[in-house]
Amino acid sequence: MSTEYHIRIDRTACVGVFACLVRDDRFEEAPDGLVTIERADGSDEQADETIARFSDDRLADARLAARACPVDAIDVTVIDDA
Ligand code: SF4
């Protein structure tokens, strides 16, 4: 089932534990040692607040990554269930 959702990362909260990476491989280590996320179009960003929008069947992976983050730096918001 395809779901439309946002993943928001608060990079000011991230401490680089990388518990998220092993749950969802769209999360990546950025050159600054903090996390970033690969967007659907292949780009990524290293702003303090990084938001990526997806429409796919990987919502569960994103939620696992968010739950694993020890500092709650990741938010997943569902926009639309198709
Ligand atoms: S799990 Fe949280 S603190 Fe760790 S790298 Fe991911 S976003 Fe940063």
Automatic annotation (TrEMBL):
Protein name (record): Ferredoxin
SUPFAM superfamilies: 4Fe-4S ferredoxins
Species: Halocatena pleomorpha
Pfam family, one: Fer4_15
